[in-house]
TrEMBL record:
Leader sequence residues: none
Ranges of residues in domain HTH gntR-type: 16-84
InterPro entries noted in UniProt: GntR_C, TF_FadR/GntR_C, Tscrpt_reg_HTH_GntR, WH-like_DNA-bd_sf, WH_DNA-bd_sf
Top-rank taxon: Bacteria
PROSITE patterns listed in its UniProt record: HTH_GNTR
The entry's keywords: DNA-binding, Transcription, Transcription regulation
Annotated protein name in UniProt: HTH-type transcriptional regulator LutR
Organism from which the protein derives: Achromobacter anxifer
Length: 242
């Protein structure tokens, strides 16, 4: 029976986090067999049109899917589905990270997790991973010079460090947290640091370069210390502001 013409139409609900909503949709297609292992995923442009999201959202979702082992990306070729594992995906709702206290709690976790990840990355990284880290840092620098999007390359750099550990669980956790790990996506970090945005981001960029330099030199202790300093600086600024 058809609904009356004047019946209200319930709009499709958009998830609170667009990237996670996209991850969930593609994951369902892979686990349900609609996308089979070895199948090539639609292009970024096709996914943007289908889901009505930006390229940044698509790239973040694909990064999460790759870190969780559901897809693999071949640069210049495309992204392909892998055989899904039987385990349950880790879930953290970024929408729950909304206050200064929430960001502080997350930073405490990140200091423990990412300091060790940086140390392992220094010992285990390969040339391809170093190249991708350099590209992310160059993209951050370019965005800083043009007042563009610094969140995407910031998150990408941290994710790449996690991936360079060779331990998929570091990357899984970082990937599922997504860009919510970047404090300025939740609060005005520059305001809490009592400096203008450009100066704040310039300092973040220098801290990233210190981490990268240690990983490049394969200095595990320096990489651990540089990552701890980077994240501890953010935590201390927020503590003082709070």
């Amino acid at each position: 029976m058809n609904a009356p013409a004047d019946s209200p139409v319930t709009p499709r609900r958009r998830p609170r986090n667009l990237a996670q909503g996209l991850v969930d949709s593609i994951t369902e297609r892979i686990r349900g067999g609609e996308i089979r292992p070895g199948d090539k995923l639609p292009t970024e442009s096709e996914i943007m049109r289908e889901f009505g999201v930006s390229r940044t959202v698509v790239r973040e979702a694909l990064s999460r899917l790759q870190a969780s082992g559901l897809v693999e990306t071949h640069h210049g070729v495309g992204t392909y589905a892998l055989e899904p594992s039987g385990g349950n995906d880790f879930r953290v709702d970024p929408a729950d990270i909304a206050t200064v206290r929430d960001v502080l709690v997350l930073l405490e976790l990140r200091i423990c997790l990412e300091s060790e990840a940086a140390s392992l990355a220094a010992a285990r990284r390969n040339q391809a991973q170093l190249h991708e880290m350099r590209r992310a840092l160059d993209a951050f620098r370019s965005a800083l010079d043009t007042s563009g999007d610094t969140v995407t390359p910031d998150f990408q750099f941290h994710l790449l460090v996690a991936q360079a550990t060779g331990n998929r669980y570091f990357a899984d956790l970082m990937s599922h947290l997504g860009s919510a790990i970047i404090p300025r996506t939740r609060i005005n970090s520059a305001k809490f640091a009592h400096e203008d945005r450009a100066a704040y981001l310039e300092r973040v960029n220098l801290e990233h370069e210190d981490i990268y330099g240690a990983i490049l030199r394969q200095d595990a202790e320096a990489a651990r210390a540089a990552m701890r300093t980077h994240l501890s600086n953010s935590r201390e600024r927020l503590r003082r502001a709070q």
